[in-house]
Write a structure and sequence with these properties.
single chain, alpha/beta, three-stranded parallel beta sheet, 7 helices, about 15% strand
Amino acid sequence: MYHSIKSVHRNEVMRSIHVSPRSFALQMRIIKALDFKVCSVGDAIQRKKAGCKSRIIALSFDDAYENVYDTALPILRKYGFSATIYAVAGLVGSSNVWDLNSGISENTLMSETQIRDCKAHGIEIGCHTHTHQSLIAFNCQLEQEILESKSALEERFDSEINNFCYPYGHYDDTIVKQVSDAGFKFGVTMDRGISNERDSELLLPRIPITWHTLPHLFIAKILTSYEDNRRVL
């Protein structure tokens, strides 16, 4: 699970959501050298259902930052990797306005043209709600954030959107049911762990990769039980 691929100052608020371009490039070299099959979330699930025995990594990028398009996409193309990018339906081409009251710096989100280019190069487009509001907030308009955001992205990019990402990792049983009723087949959380056959396809755990994920830790995260040991049971 990635967010922004960008070098930032050490005093940056929420520095952890950024991964430096140099670190990201090294991480991709590592998983290439380890002979992982690297794909989108949806493709990873389908491969496992088909009985694929290869080691699989599904790359995901929350929020659809423009720096992912500028920096990460060329590296993914170099290695023939795919990924899933979760776009905020109502803020395409805007910025992370949901963060600005918390002191987090403004970062531009991908434009419609950039998202279309990602899709043309085999990147899966997922839905990250309409405005990136917490779905458990008392004033959240769940129909707009879940159902209408799906319809908006499908109309805009002329393709079915099956994949959902819960903002801030917030969900409850009611929200998961609404995600399912809206027609989403897969959903990713911020729960930590390596996905296995016991996980609900609407509540998939992920491995967080942050500014502080040094190479030895990155290898531990993808090759060992490091993340599973941090699952909340």
